[in-house]
Known about the structure:
- The chain has helices at 2-11, 14-17, 23-27, 30-33, 39-64, 76-84, 92-124, 127-130, 138-151, 156-185, 195-204, 206-216, 223-228, 230-233, 235-263, 271-274, 281-312, 335-352, 355-384, 389-411, 419-450, and strands spanning 322-323, 332-333.
- The chain is mainly α and 455 residues long.
- A two-stranded antiparallel ribbon has the order 1-2.
- It is globular, with a radius of gyration of 22 Å.
- The mean pLDDT is 85.
Amino acid sequence: MVGLALGALGVVFGDIGTSPLYALQTVFSIDHNTVAATPGDVYGVISLVFWSITVIVSVKYVAFILRADNDGEGGVMALAALARTAVRPGGRRFGLVMLLGVLGASLFYGDSVITPAISVMSAIEGLSVSTPSLSHLVVPIGAVIITALFAGQRFGTQLVGRFFGPVMALWFVVLAVMGLGQVFRDPAILTGLSPHYGLLFVLDHPVVAFVAMGAVVLSITGAEALYADMGHFGRQPIRRAWFFVVFPALTLNYLGQGALILQDPTAATNPFFRLAPGALRLPLVVLATLATVIASQAVISGAYSVSRQAERLGYLPRLTVRHTSTHERGQIYVPAINWTLFVGVILLLVTFQSSERLATAYGLAVTGTFLITTTLFLMYAEAHWRWNRWQLLLLGVPLAALELTYFGANVTKLFHGGWLPVLIALTVATVMLTWQRGRILVTERRASMEGPLEP
Length: 455
């Protein structure tokens, strides 16, 4: 169990674990510094970040959605497969369930292309803070790292996790220590954990808070990977790693960044790297780069799982699937998906050239997937767990309110990079739906030409 939990640290939590690199930086730079580095805004943002992580990750995914596994597998297509068993085949609701599954999977593919690009770029951009003379090498170094990451996928998540697990364990320790040091200097930041600061921020500055929510969602990117990667490690190792390691480390680091911004508002330009002493920034860039490579692993592994589920449901052609573990049947490698993602990531690196530009494209894919997953889960809970209306409303209304706010805030970025995940999702959805429809037509044509099988 400990080994699986360590492996989960290395594969599952890389994405959400590296969000501190760019989340608060983006909040305070979005829309030409709409969110000011004033005490009221800082406390409000810290509160929104903490409660977003608590509600979406700890409650929605870890407490509830991880319980909805399809023969040990997770991910939006697995959830759609579970939800469709409760509706009449061929009916309108059946078609809606599968359409939601396809759209959710398509948005996740968009996330799987954007995450490696933004994660690696945000880490290497630390060179601009520690060694400004090397800032022109950010894109070439990023391309080399991404190439090595995708080339190593054929060795499997078990081997990858064995190496990545200790690195991510060190990463989370560093996150916690960096944040804790700043919290000790300004313990008043701990009051930012109170939900009333987030509520006051929203009530006093509704427009500013709405803009901020479009970037606050960056603190929970990677939440879907917890579910998508469940087949690789299992439910319990993921839960234990989250509550005992990841959640505390993230909370401390965000608190530390908030305290630093309160002390020095100019630190809002890059609060993560400014937390570290000058002499330690270059080693931190190296560790952050390793961590962001690992962050990419979370969505890459998830994309393999989603692709296999889509193939089983008839939405993708037959794929070459290689099992990479003798113990966990969910640990797989899909070459076609691997190299397709690789090409997409490299194109993004060359086109956008900075994590700040990519951040505007990031949120729409993530928030769209959140909404679809919530909808499918509630349909599943109603049918399989026999939840009554009040149970559905008790969980569904708060989640819908929060996730619709995230989604709405990111829709405003549609013409500023948000079109990218939409384009990727529409392309993938078209391929999947066309393949599924073509397969049905071919089957019907063959049946009409060959006639029914003799009893």
